[in-house]
Amino acid sequence: MGPWGKRDDVRVHETEPYNAEPPPAALAGQWLTPVDAFYSRNHGPVPRIAPDTWRLRVDGLVQRPLDLSLADLRDGFEAHSAVVTLQCAGNRRAGLIAVRDIPGEDPWGSAAVSTAEWTGARLGDVLAAAGVQEGAAHVALEAPDVSELADPPQRFGASVPLEKAGADEVLLAWAMNGEPVPPVHGGPVRVVVPGWIGARSVKWIERVTVQREPSDNWFQDVAYRLLPSDGEPAHGRGIPLGPLPLTADILAPEDGAVVSAGPLEVTGYALAGDRRTVARVEVSADGGASWRAAKLDPPIGPWAWQHWRATLAVPPGPAELVARAWDSAGTPQPELPGPLWNPKGYANNSWGRVTLTARH
Ligand SMILES: Nc1nc2c(c(=O)[nH]1)N[C@H]1C(S)=C(S)[C@@H](COP(=O)(O)O)O[C@H]1N2
Ligand SMILES: [Mo]
Predict the structure, then answer these.
(1) What are the two backbone dihedrals, phi and then psi, of residue 70, each rounded to the nearest 5 degrees?
(2) Is 218 helix (H, G, I), strand (E, B) or coil?
(3) What is the pLDDT of residues 259-301, one digit of tens each?
(4) pTM value?
(5) Atom of ligand 1 nearest to the CA of 185
(6) Ligand 1, residues at Cβ distance < 6 Å
(7) How far apart are CA 113 and CA 121, in angstroms?
């Protein structure tokens, strides 16, 4: 087993800060991702926080600032569980780097996406206990991990508009797949913001501030923004990323695989954005010249991926597998990464592609 309890075969982009994704096939065909395969994205050292010393401060535009222990959170608020897929905004950046280089950012493949059952208190219930004041519009989330990658170096933070932060699905989670949230995934308590880019699901949450404006934290105000293709990161530039776009991708077979010619089982996932479901997935074994419908699992809940599978006839020789999805609003996935290229390499939701070789 590798660092932080991960499988030996995870692809480690960086050891410090720790950034790793599993082989895509480790995600295939199962709703819940085992913790040893769940991708992990960190911008600074992983803090070790003893559960009995953890505190959560709730302040800003509230009637009653709160200072909660883990016991206060567990005993004072109703517990809720939800199956939620987390996806990093940098998932599939490698496909954008293939279009044009993105210096200084890791070339994440197809597996910066994973699903767990999260259990915790609703952030909305905690905000209600504190009493949100008039004029509040955003909820800033702050963690203790200091990132040297930020300019200037600072703690990791984010903010979420009050409307989303207070929605039923947003959790202060203390359990992941029925076990205490492990340190690398934000234990003792992390925020889970379903349907939004992973960067808003702040780990090791220690301060929640209700305010008029979005957070001025570097990770909200500079990074995790969709810049114009000729733009440079700067304060307040670009579109702050929130809701995830529709994505479908192939998880097995893996890119570069050598398979037997003939019928081939292809599997993958599709994930619709905030408040949409996946309506259709099609798969091609000839680079998109011809398509077949994939068999799509029904949604397990509004915030989780849906897996799909199809059996395709693959003739001997090189082959390109392609997958594409539509969501419940009829929106198709974009075909190519080229027009999606952006300077920080976020939000590549183009058609899933895998090249392989079929042998007699
Ligand atoms: N405190 C803190 N929270 C954080 C991060 C971080 O570096 N520090 N990374 C964010 C990003 S970009 C992602 S994609 C998710 C990854 O969560 P995971 O490591 O549990 O998979 O955590 C988010 N929350
Ligand atoms: Mo991320």
Answers:
(1) -60, -40
(2) helix
(3) 999 999 999 999 998 778 999 999 999 999 999 999 999 988 9
(4) 0.98
(5) 20
(6) 38-43, 86, 88, 143, 145, 156, 185-186, 198-199, 201-204
(7) 23
